[in-house]
Amino acid sequence: MQKSHLLRNQSGGRSRLTLWVAVAILLLTFWLGRHLLYTTWTLAALRVFWHENASQFIISQSNDNFDVTFANYSKAQVSAEPYQDLVPPILHHIALGDTEGRWKSRWGDSVQSCVDVHPGWESHIWTDDNASKFVAEKFPQLKELWDSYHYPVERIDALRYMLLYAYGGVVLDMDLKCKRGLGPLRRFSFVAPEAHPTGFSIGFMMASKENAFVGDIVRNLTVYNKQWLGLPYATVMFSTGCHFASVIHVYESNRTDLKILPGPLHSLNGRVSTPIFDHLGSSSWHSYDAKLIVTIGSRVNLIFFFFVGVALALFLRKKSLLRRF
Ligand SMILES: *[C@@H]1O[C@H](CO)[C@@H](O)[C@H](O)[C@H]1NC(C)=O
Ligand SMILES: *[C@@H]1O[C@H](CO)[C@@H](O)[C@H](O)[C@H]1NC(C)=O
Ligand SMILES: CC(=O)N[C@H]1CO[C@H](CO)[C@@H](O)[C@@H]1O
Known about the structure:
This is Glycosyltransferase family 32 protein. Keywords: Membrane, Transferase, Transmembrane, Transmembrane helix. The protein has helices at residues 2-32, 34-44, 46-49, 54-57, 61-64, 103-116, 128-138, 140-148, 152-167, 212-224, 232-239, 242-250, 300-324; strands spanning 90-94, 122-126, 169-172, 176-178, 190-193, 204-207, 258-261, 277-279. By secondary structure, the protein is of the alpha/beta class. Strands 2-1-3-6-5-7 form a six-stranded mixed sheet, sandwiched between helices. The chain is elongated and about 85 Å long. One 2-acetamido-2-deoxy-beta-D-glucopyranose is lined by residues 42, 216, 219-220, 223, 247-248, 251.
């Protein structure tokens, strides 16, 4: 009787010690990884917070006196008149990783359709050469990051935000065929189409020059640059893609002027026709929803979450063991 009581006491003491060690490891891991945990949380919670006050930033007839069907606007309208034009008349298309100019045969028509409906606008095609020069000149502090991206799509996405910030104007995927002038939208300092099920698409964005929100996106490129779970798709979406940009939108203090064209009418998921575009839905990287042919990257974050998981499991197991004594 006495002996077994003694034994039980000893093993209880050992359990308690292990419990405290587990708690300490857990707390230390959380402390060391607190920034990563915060960014992870913001990414995970997008679905919960995206729709908060959505009626204020989703473009509508009642709030903005805007016809989202565009039926009331002329196809040739390239200015927001009588409203002030906040977005400068500049088109940006990105053709990174295409040294031989192959985009011309494949996407020449859709690119030209957008140039054609905006006569007199500046039009830029960004290739490896001029884009690299642009980043080095305008964002020298981000050049190393930009060069170090694992996946070409990350470089394309980061470039969209940088171009939009430095020049303002309209950033367009090459597989978007323009059906009409974007003039009516130029009265808003930022516009992007709603994505399904949350957030917005970055294949089409318009913004004023040096827009504060776009500046916040650019600044946070460094913060979100991780090999998320070591998975290519997650890495692209969370460090530079739609999911990342939508998270920055959610955490802006006043989202009223960060306008979103309502889905599903304007969503560019798949091969669709919206009031302003025919989305040709390419299967190459030119389109955002393209299948990403990429390899598994570094596992640093995976290891981090593995340890958090082990510490948690240890903690819970010891707790339930203790309860039995
Ligand atoms: C189109 O314009 C007419 C007349 O200006 C207006 O009465 C109508 O409400 C508008 N429709 C939409 C959908 O904006
Ligand atoms: C948010 O911005 C809008 C438009 O600029 C403004 O009318 C509104 O008062 C702002 N809301 C707050 C809470 O500051
Ligand atoms: C959502 C988010 O993490 N936004 C951050 C962007 O970066 C600035 C600092 O550069 C942070 O203050 C924001 O919290």
